[in-house]
Amino acid sequence: MNILLVDDHALFREGLRHLFRDLDASVRVSEAAGAREALEILRGRDDLDLVLLDLALPDARPFEVLEASRRLQPQVPVVVVSASQDRFEIERALGLGAQAYVFKSSSSATMLAALRRVMKGEVVVPDTGGAAPAPREAPLTERQIEVLRLLSRGLSNKEIGDHLGLAENTVKIHLGHIYRTLGVTSRTSALLKAFQLGLLAHAP
């Protein structure tokens, strides 16, 4: 398993290297202390399995490397590891293609659990607190909750339909109702809101 770790703090990188041993005994880690190094690796390597990325790099705009990684290696999942717990930043990172967002203040167990879920193809959204009560006038049905659960695993509408025995158009109808109920306009926003409202289990 090949991991690219992008963070400008050497001590943090060292800590994650030790943590990776519990993820996979054969893990090999490439490190980049800044955007330039990260982009060189992304352009020159075709064997990466996972990217861990801090958005706050000294030589790049906050989302620049994330956007570049999606262009250069869209098949490789990106986990954003950030000190920021700002909801806008979380939503934007997920909207740009990050498969997970993990706080730097998280425990090692939380980090490992998130990485394992990402390697299974799931989307991991952090608990930002401040949850409001779920809407009462138009609650989600059990089937719509099932759609959300599959959505959190990164499945397409067709794949969700295959899992639930539904036509793809029916899945779109369910998603439309979910969006209206939660007051959102995208899959990423729907997942974030669902986690905040306690409709789905938060990332461990």
State the helix count: 9
**Strand residues, percent:** 5-15%
Question: What's the CATH topology name of the largest domain?
Answer: Rossmann fold
Number of strand elements:
5
CATH classification, class level of the largest domain:
Alpha Beta
Largest sheet: 5 strands, parallel
Q: List unreliable stretches of 5+ residues.
A: 131-138
Q: What's the CATH superfamily of the largest domain, by name?
A: Response regulator
Separation of the first and last Cα atoms: 23 Å
Describe, in short, the structure shown.
The chain contains nine helices and five strands; from the N terminus they run βαβαβαβαβααααα.
Give me some keywords for this one.
204 residues, alpha/beta, Rossmann fold, Arc Repressor Mutant, subunit A, 2 domains, five-stranded parallel sheet, 9 helices, elongated
Overview of this protein structure:
- The chain is an alpha/beta fold.
- It has 2 domains: 2-119, Rossmann fold (3-Layer(aba) Sandwich), CATH 3.40.50; 142-196, Winged helix-like DNA-binding domain superfamily/Winged helix DNA-binding domain (Arc Repressor Mutant, subunit A), CATH 1.10.10.10.
- It is 48% helix and 11% strand.
- The protein has a 5-stranded parallel beta sheet with strand order 2-1-3-4-5, sandwiched between helices.
- Helix 1 (10-23) links the parallel strand 1 (2-6) and strand 2.
